[in-house]
Amino acid sequence: MSFFVSPSILSADFTKLKEEIESVEKAGADFLHLDVMDGCFVPNLTFGPIIVRAIRKMTGLPLDTHLMIADPLKYIKNFADAGADIIIFHPEARSPIEETLREIKKFGKKAGLAINPPTPVSAIRDYLGELEWILVMSVNPGFAGQKFMPEVLPKVEELARLKREKGYSYRLAIDGGINGETAPLAKRAGAEVLVSASYIFSSADRRKAIMTLKN
Ligand code: DX5
Ligand code: ZN
Questions:
Q1: CATH code assigned at 148
Q2: 10 lies in which domain range?
Q3: What burial class does residue 174 get, using C-beta atoms within 10 Å of its C-beta: 0-12 exposed, 13-18 middle, 19+ buried?
Q4: How many domains does one find in the chain?
Q5: How confident is the model over 174-203, as pLDDT tens digits?
Q6: pTM score > 0.90 for this model?
Q7: Among the atoms of ligand 1, which is closest to the Cα of residue 37?
Q8: Which residues belong to the active site?
Q9: Which of 20, 32, 35 best tests ligand 1's pocket when mutated (most atoms within 8 Å of CB)?
Q10: From the CB of residue 184, how many other CB atoms can be counted at a distance below 10 Å?
Q11: Nearest Cα to 77, choosing from 47, 53, 45, 61?
């Protein structure tokens, strides 16, 4: 079983974003995770399509774009045009899920859903066959550097089991509080992609951090 790592730039030094992205790309990152926050769906604000477009020019890594915004449907075209490869949104937001998934696919992008810690797998059960990514949140979204919530692991196990049993093709990712101690728990539960901001960007040796998460 091989595992993938997607560093979230939320903990990068934005005064030298290009070097930061290059450093994780060279260190073995498989994806780059972009946390888009609107100050409404979550109590924090980050960046939008303009920055995604700039990042697109800085790296060849696939961009998994995590939309923590209240009305994702309204902005799918903007993120697709900006160069996002995978567009992930929340069922807890107010956009109609089916229509938003269709909109993402209309632009030839991979579609994913992210579920907050209190949200059960049943909230996305009807869409499992259409999803290319699922992001299980292991913190309440909004900020980097929060503590991992082990109580979400049964959802990872359930989604891994459903994938196996029903032959679904989604990539199963986990996001929040992932570090050298929590990554093995997430992987044991069935997570295939580890998203991590603070653990990777706060470590001086990023290759070592990424390899620790993978192995
Ligand atoms: C949280 C974001 C995460 C965050 C992870 O709202 O969705 O992607 O950047 O940060 P760490 O790895 O520091 O928990
Ligand atoms: Zn995220």
A1: 3.20.20.70
A2: 4-214
A3: buried
A4: 1
A5: 999 999 999 999 999 999 999 999 999 999
A6: yes
A7: 6
A8: 35, 175
A9: 35
A10: 12
A11: 53
